[in-house]
Amino acid sequence: MSDTVANPGLPPDKPDSTLPIVAIYAVFGGLWILLSDRFVAALFPDPAEALRVGLIKGWLFIAVTALLLHMLIRRLTTRLHTAYRHEIELHVEQQRSLRLLAAIARASQDAIFAKDRQGKYTLFNEAACADAGRTLDQVLGRDDIQVFPAQAELQQASDRQLMAEGRLDTVELTIDTAQRGRRTYLITKGPLRDNDGKVTGVFGISRDITERKRAEEELRENEARFRALVEQSAVGIYIIQDNRFRYVNPHLAKLAGYGSPDEMIASGSILDLVAPEQRDFVTEKMRQRMAGAGAESNYEVTGIRRDGVRIELDLYGNFLVHENRPAMIGLVIDITTRKRAERELKQRNEELERINRAMVGREQVMIEMKKDINRLSRLLGQEEPYDLGFLDEAAPRDDAGS
User: Which of 25-39, 249-263, 292-306 has the highest mean pLDDT?
Assistant: First the structure.
């Protein structure tokens, strides 16, 4: 399309620019006739002389009015030419803008459309045609009843409301398309206006957000599964930031003696859960972890419940970015029962070892006594009362084992 325009013409509602010229000419002519006749009559009482002066006055009137008309017409012509050039430039600029908008509409992957006040489509780009499964000729000049019959009533009501209120609106709408099945679109619509601001129709931009909605739904499902796993976990789970709890699951709140996670979060620092004599140790471990020392931290500490009861805890922590700031996420496992069992087992093993040592020592004394009695019996020529042959059988095995 060329940038030149044959003759766009002037707007029809321009006021008539010749009226000021006619008015000026009439006023000037009337004043000239009235004043000049009086002036000649006063200066030239002789009729013959007055006639000659009158002729001169007439020619002078013609010359002056011709000059005045020339100036006024030239001024009008200049203004008309300026206005005409402005109209041409404005028309060319509008054509450039329309071509640019048409190019954008053609290249856009979003569906772009426009309708007149009767709801008939006046613009429908290639993306919109692809979604509708129709050619441009099958859409232009038709309304929603013919193009989208399933959603026609809803769309027409929305268009009427937008034109009446003169506002933009953005909605999500699920449509059954001819080529791609059921799709979800984010549609922004608003009123079209002419140069005087009068509403002439509606425009719309429709973006296919089906994949985004599917991804959002999958994310919500994953978050729900993860939250259910965390909330129902049999171990304590926490997020710490600035030495304070930002999140605790129900198990950790119960373990620490609180009625709810929110109550525990509002109560204070993680150090409140640690025995006073180990708080410096835990603070240093947390500092190292936040500084990035090591992949994760794991250590055992003595904890204190809200009611003052001491418990044994196994702590795990790892670095985390929470709300764009460094934090730590980890697990808290109650090992009080296990540690108690370990202490009891160790105590019983020590007791058993003591008893075993005592039993072995007594048995060794008895064997030595039996050996002495057997030796005395042999000296007295009597039969050995104790059979200690098992000692001779055990000796080779011990030697072999050693």
Answer: 249-263
